[in-house]
Amino acid sequence: MKRLSIFILILVLSLAVVQSADQKKMNVVDYFLLLPANYFEGPPQGWLEFLRQPKCGVVDLTNGYISCIGDGAQPAFEVTLFRHSDGRPILAVCQGELEGPDSVFLDFFELGADGKVKKIRRSIFPVRDAGNDKGNWRFQLPREGRTVLVRKQKGGMILRKLTWNGEKFQDEK
């Protein structure tokens, strides 16, 4: 009985290590493709195909970053992959209003036990969305690094710099 318990413990630990290793191997595109099909105007796979066209955006696997100019009913958007201290992924998605300012909505997603990404609460980020006339700022996700900039809508002056510390975003001093 003791050997069976030890075997089960080793098996569970091995599965946790394999799952963690699989998550670390996945890149920003892998997580982007797991976003809900109705999150954008069209499924993520369609936007990935759109991004393969010249001048439609950027897919930077090395830095975990996607930028898309949008098209038709879909405003421009940015996606950045961050990681928790323990390696778990967190995907930030920033987009604008259809006929309004760019980069005013910011959502965060984590990978669930079912292998799907789920939107999480904004408690990890101390600035609310600016869309729907709530604020005069916009977000700029990092292509490199871990700092999200909060800028004035007009002129682009930096209002805040929020850096991911592995658990939440904190103001840079």
What's the gist of this structure?
With 173 residues, the chain is α+β, with helices and mostly antiparallel strands.
Detail the topology: elements first, then pairings.
Blueprint: H1 2-25, H2 28-33, H3 44-51, E1 57-60, E2 65-68, E3 77-83, E4 89-95, E5 105-111, E6 117-119, E7 137-140, E8 147-152, E9 158-164, E10 169-171
Antiparallel strand pairs: 1-2, 2-3, 3-4, 4-5, 5-6, 7-8, 8-9, 9-10
Describe the structure.
By secondary structure, this protein is an alpha+beta fold. Helix content is 22%, strand content 30%. The protein has 3 helices and 10 strands. The chain has helices spanning 2-25, 28-33, 44-51; strands spanning 57-60, 65-68, 77-83, 89-95, 105-111, 117-119, 137-140, 147-152, 158-164, 169-171. The strands form 2 sheets. The chain has a 6-stranded antiparallel sheet. Strand 8 and strand 9 form a beta hairpin. It is globular, with a radius of gyration of 18 Å. It starts with a helix and ends with a strand.
